Amino acid sequence: MLKSGQQQIPYRIIKSSGIVTGIALISAAAGIASLENNNFVLASAPGLFTAAWILQRAWPIAAKNPPLELGVTCEIRKSPGAGLGLFAKKDIKRGTFLFDYLGEEITEDEFEQRYGKIGAANYGLELYPLFPWQKSTLIDAIDPAKSNAGRYMNHAFPNSPLYNVVKRRQRWPIPALRLFAARDIKAGEELCWNYGQDYWRGRENMLRQHTTHHTTQVIIT
């Protein structure tokens, strides 16, 4: 297994929206029209908006702490009603950087050859690029030797009291999925994050089966 500190990169908060992209296109059209009318102030608006749009998608916020260390600040053990889980060995304050979700980085074509689609992989996720036209990188954490402790974290929906880890997607300079404490976490608590609705498409029966054992927590390990 990779150590928690391997391949870590500075944290970025990423927010993107199709609405923002649409506004950018409208602004570009308005800028061209303004330039034709010799209104250089309005003509510069599209460039400024585009710069703001890029900045919004890749605003750098440095992590204030090193990642959790397996065996020191977190540990892998049996999770009630599920398989293995990841547990805090020490108290963790809200906002603490935990680690990146690490695994084997492969292309979309390689991922499709293995699983057919992203939803078919139990430990797979997509890393988003800075721009929509760029190709995505995919993470396959099926092999513990090529991943880190993140692969052992179980699922909990945000409305569950078990939910205590929030994910943030980084698009630049290197795409990554970063994990932080969503609230104060006590030593002994299991670390749980939201896999997302896409993960449960086609797994509805599994979702119902596991919620009966583990409240709103669900896991495949």
Tell me what the structure shows.
The protein is an alpha+beta fold and 221 residues long. The chain has six helices and 13 strands. It is globular. It is 27% helix and 22% strand. The protein has a three-stranded antiparallel beta sheet with strand order 5-11-10, with no helix packed on it. A three-stranded antiparallel beta sheet has the order 6-8-7. The chain has a three-stranded mixed beta sheet with strand order 12-9-13. The relative contact order is 0.18.
Please outline the helices and strands.
Elements: E1 12-13, H1 18-36, H2 40-43, H3 45-57, E2 59-60, E3 74-78, E4 84-88, E5 97-100, E6 104-106, H4 108-115, E7 124-127, E8 137-140, E9 154-156, E10 165-170, E11 176-181, E12 192-193, H5 197-200, H6 204-214, E13 217-218
Q: What is the averaged pLDDT score?
A: 76
Q: What is the N-to-C order of secondary-structure elements (H for helix, E for strand)?
A: EHHHEEEEEHEEEEEEHHE
Record field, number of beta strands:
13
Q: Distance between termini?
A: 15 Å
What form results from the Cα inertia axes?
A: globular
Give the neighbour order of strands across the main sheet. Answer: 5-11-10
**Radius of gyration, taken over Cα atoms and rounded to an integer in Å:** 20 Å
How many H/I helical runs? 6
For the largest beta-sheet, the strand count, sense and barrel status come to: 3 strands, antiparallel
- Spans of 5+ residues with little confidence (pLDDT < 50)? 8-19, 212-221
Instruction: Assign a percent range to the helix content.
Output: 25-40%
Class per helix and strand makeup: alpha+beta
Strand content: 15-25%
